[in-house]
Write a structure and sequence with these properties.
Shape: rod-shaped
CATH class of the largest domain: Mainly Beta
CATH superfamily of the largest domain: Immunoglobulins
Number of domains: 3
Structural class: mainly beta
Low-confidence stretches: 2-8
Strand content: over 45%
Distance between the termini: 157 Å
CATH architecture of the largest domain: Sandwich
Order of helices and strands: EEEEEEEEEEEEEEEEEEEEE
Number of strands: 21
């Protein structure tokens, strides 16, 4: 009688333990057979973060992926490249059959980058993730231009209508938002925003002291704010007080020839 009593997979080998008994001449045998495991299934890599087509204003970023294999992981390499060439690779060892890898890399300059993980298993199989991910590095705030009418002379206007025209643009990640805030003595009186440029708004304002600011942000999170601007609305003409001569009746004027 020959019987397999147990099997075990370890370090790329299949261990088989065999127990055998021959009735005559009563020979008892216990054998161990070690067979290498044939593994032709490549590992898998699932890219997690940053999300595909994401934006960042930071040059140093962490690249996260989930690596799996049916038998055992061995090592991995993070590949980062741009439209013209390979930028760099980062190597690390991994183990087990399911691993989360998180490697950091400083992007050298603003622009579009592509990344992926090459993963190798203990049998020598290797594979990239099925899809490359894109990350856009943009550290420059948008451009911002605006005008306030009617013309404000040294922070004063004599008009009860305030018109604000804003233009903003961002050539890399793209414009995210334009914001205009107007405050009076009681707090914020008006607020408007737009994801597109230009933005034109008109506010009715009564006499008093105001403060306004204008800002623009891009999809990478860069913001360009204007300085707070003071504005005094004064539509009342100056008062004229005649003190002399006093108003005491008709004033006779004699012309001498």
């Amino acid at each position: 009688m020959i019987k397999v009593v147990s099997t075990m997979k370890k370090s790329g080998f299949l261990y088989i333990f065999i127990f055998g008994i021959l009735v005559f001449p009563f020979v008892v045998a216990l054998a161990e057979i070690n067979l290498p495991i044939l593994d032709i299934i490549p590992p898998a890599s699932k890219l997690i973060s940053p999300l595909n087509n994401s934006y960042t204003k930071f040059n140093n970023n962490s690249f996260v992926a989930n690596l799996t294999d049916n038998e055992g992981l061995n090592n991995t390499q993070l590949y980062i490249w741009n439209s013209s060439s390979l930028v760099d690779t980062v190597f690390d060892f991994v183990s087990g059959t399911d691993s989360i890898i998180n490697l950091s890399f400083p992007l050298p300059s603003e622009g579009f980058y592509y990344w992926n993980y090459l993963v190798n298993d203990t049998a020598g199989n290797s594979a990239f993730s099925e899809n490359n991910f894109t990350i856009i590095y943009d550290k420059t705030p948008p451009s911002l231009n605006y005008s306030v009418t009617p013309v404000v002379f040294e922070g004063y206007t004599n008009n009860n209508t305030l018109s604000i025209f804003v233009e903003a643009s961002d050539s890399l990640s793209g414009l995210a938002n334009i914001a205009v805030n107007l405050f009076n003595s009681s707090g914020k009186s008006n607020s408007d925003s737009s994801p597109t440029s230009p933005l034109f708004i008109t506010y009715p304002v009564s006499d008093g002291v105001y403060l306004y600011n204008i800002s623009a942000s891009d999809l990478a999170g860069n913001i360009i704010p204007s300085e707070n601007q003071n504005l005094t609305v004064d539509t009342l003409g100056p008062a004229l007080l005649v003190s002399s001569p006093p108003n005491e009746g008709d004033l006779n004027i004699f012309l001498l020839n």
